[in-house]
Amino acid sequence: MNRLKVLCLNFALAGLAVIIVGCSGGMSGIVPLSAKIQNADRKLAEAEQLQFKGDTKEEKTTFDAEKKELYDDALRRYLEIIEAAPQGKYAQRAHFQVAEIYKKRYDWDSSVQHFQSIVDLSPTGYYASRAKSGIADIRKNRRIIQEKRRIYQNRRLLEDDESQTLAAKALYDVAKAYETIGNYPEAVENYEKLIAEFSEYKLTPQVQFQIGNIYFYRLHDYSNSGGWGAFVKVIEAYPESFEAREAETLLKKSSRTLTQIAQEMELIESYKNKKAFDYRDTGRYVPSTELWKMGYSDHAVQAYQEVARGWEKMRNYTFAIAAYDKLVEYISHRKFAVADALFQTGVLYQKNGELERAIDAYHRLFEKAPESTWRAEAVYNQAVCFQSIREFNEAYRGFKAYMSLGDDGKYYREAEQRVRQFELDQDGDGYKFYKEQEAGTSDQDADDFPGAQQPAASGM
Q: Among 74, 80, 200, 409, which one is least packed by beta carbons within 10 Å?
């Protein structure tokens, strides 16, 4: 009898497990969307921060496959968020990142589809404005590519000077259009075709220089087969040009910076407690105090900061953020350094136009280091970000919070001006400016206010 009871209990527990897993999809079903969007952003950051360090085609193929896998993972996570809450708080943000990933893959139709989904969800919001620009850029530049490629094909075989100039200019416009919408491999290919077919074209030194710029500042490829080699070609092929002098100066500065970054990375490796890192890599917890050789964690902090500053000099905010992320992860016991890293991360995201990720970085600073010397400036910066993404209630609270920290603050006057503007009620309807802005209503029309009933459509 007892055995029968145990058997029944086992079946009941198994059934309960099936119900739980079936309803929630395992533990992932209870993960809040706020955590899911952060996980998706983190996976996207991993893809963006992956650095190509080889020089051969085989190495590049392996690198591209690894990068694609990370983007696939991020894409899947964003699509899950959209499916779970198609009209939720994070839907527009997820749609936007999906559209951007499809742009990187040159899947323009899918990109436009997700941009349009944003517009359909909120025609006047922050993301809607960016989505409309994204759609317009894609359509405009695809049209340019089609039209200019036709001119190039029709004119390139004609030998008169006018036809050759028109063909070269058309090919340049094709490459520029690809560059504008972020298809950098196609842009480089068409720029290189322009140089090969129209070597006498007046813009060829500038074109070769631009190829280097794409590799350095868009693809973050500093290899001999990428950016470095492209700038060397400017110097060798056009030694008397302005671009050659610019390339020479740029390579000298870049050489110093990249060498310093490499040296600092070597130092970081020498400071590590290899056994502790290996143990940690197995998934086991290791305190950050034990990850470094005795007395070397402060040296590691300085090295990571130098690496981040070096990448910032290279205008590579993605890799700079990666260095700060590693500092936060691996040297978490150095609270002041962690606070500085989180603040600098927020600033870099803000510079790069990734405002919601900047907001998240500042929020992490408030959570991890509420007494940080960067706190006041972070409060102000976060409020600016909130205003830029049209979350005016949060922006108002942020500027008020900054003012409450004291009138000797660096941005006190600017915050005071913004608060004064936000508190205006120009149409006298009882709703302050920031409330009207949040609701998308007008502060110039007393009949247009948050919650106002729109006149019913006539049946006639």
A: 200
DSSP 422-451: HT--TT-SS--HHHHHHHT--SS-TT--TT
Q: Is the pLDDT of residue 441 over 80?
A: no
Query: What distances in angstroms separate CA 459 from CA 249, 410, 454, 456, one per listed residue?
Result: 71, 58, 15, 9
For residues 69 and 75, give the distance between their C-alpha atoms in angstroms, rounded to a whole number.
10
Work out the burial of residue 93: count CB atoms within 10 Å of its CB; fewer than 13 is exposed, 13-18 middle, 19 or more buried: buried
Lowest mean pLDDT among 9-23, 129-143, 178-192, 441-455: 9-23
pLDDT at 56: 79
DSSP state letter for 389 = T
What three-state secondary structure class fits 143?
helix
Count of residues in the chain = 460
346, 358 in Cβ contact below 8 A? Answer: yes
Residue identified by tokens 């309803």 is 23
b (16+ CB within 10 A) / e for 215-245 = bbeeebbbbebbbbbbbbbbbeebeebebbe
Q: What is the pTM of this model?
A: 0.81
Residue 456: DSSP 8-state: P
What average pLDDT does the chain have? Answer: 87
For residue 14, report the phi and psi dihedrals to the nearest 5 degrees.
Answer: -65, -40
H-helix or E-strand spanning residue 49: helix 33-49
Q: Which of 397, 379, 317, 314 has its CA nearest to residue 343?
A: 379
Q: How many CB atoms lie within 10 A of CB 188?
A: 22
How far apart are the C-alpha atoms of 280 and 434, rounded to whole Å?
Answer: 48
Give which of 402, 373, 372 is closest to 387, Cα–Cα: 402
* Contact between residue 406 and residue 413 where contact means Cβ atoms under 8 Å apart: no
Residue where the block lists tokens 């056009």:
238
Whole-number Å distance between alpha carbons of 41 and 39: 5
